[in-house]
Amino acid sequence: AVVAIVALCSLGSIGEDVKNEEIVINQRPMSGRMEYWATPGFKWQWFGKTTVYFKTQQVWFGADNEDGKQIGNPIPVIFNDASDGQIYGSLRVKLPTDPTYLARIQTDYNGMDRLMQDLVRQQVTKVIYASGPLMSAFESYAEKKNDLIEYITDQLNNGVYKTTVKTIETVDPITNEKKTIKIASLIPDENAPGGYKRSEVSPFSYYGLEIGQVSVSRIGYSETVRRQIAQQQEANMRVQT
Known about the structure:
Blueprint: H1 2-10, E1 15-18, E2 22-27, E3 34-37, E4 41-44, E5 49-54, E6 56-61, E7 63-64, E8 70-71, E9 75-78, E10 84-94, H2 99-108, H3 112-131, H4 137-141, H5 145-158, E11 163-171, E12 178-186, H6 203-207, E13 210-221, H7 223-240
Antiparallel strand pairs: 1-4, 2-3, 2-5, 6-10, 7-8, 9-10, 10-13, 11-12
């Protein structure tokens, strides 16, 4: 009877049925041997400790799901004209299946939740914040909206840009007065990923993570910034007329 009870209690530790969308890491008892299962099917667990990851994961930052409910918090950003905003959107993270990368992930994060919160979300926040100074609030609203998505995707996969700050004189389209502003510009480098200098290597490349399907659903501006954008649109219309 005792043997039967022990056997029943141990059934869950004998084997693991790996699903197609999962990656399972098994650590054997006593020896500590690590096994990495990225293909579906039954695997012998031999009473080991398993950790389950998903091959892909969607990360939301303030975007609305199919039910219209907000998931996650929007990420703050400051543009080169000192205007502020909140970025709403989502992206998809693809995990590696190579044991070398999986070993690094398991050692440093030991779980899907910690990987998403401590690495992915922190890096996404950093990259989006670093993308703001590359444009003004009006440019993010109009002609550079698609560029913002490209900047975010490129920096997530290849590392944060190293920029140089230029001081230029321009004419305010609203007041028609000259003003001096500072603009962050990318530094070309044919030997760097994407053709631009990087201030750091993306941590995602170290862990073999791939970032794709970056979507910016909207940018939330403060009431002051919205008024400025409306005035600038009106001024541009007058110029075109």
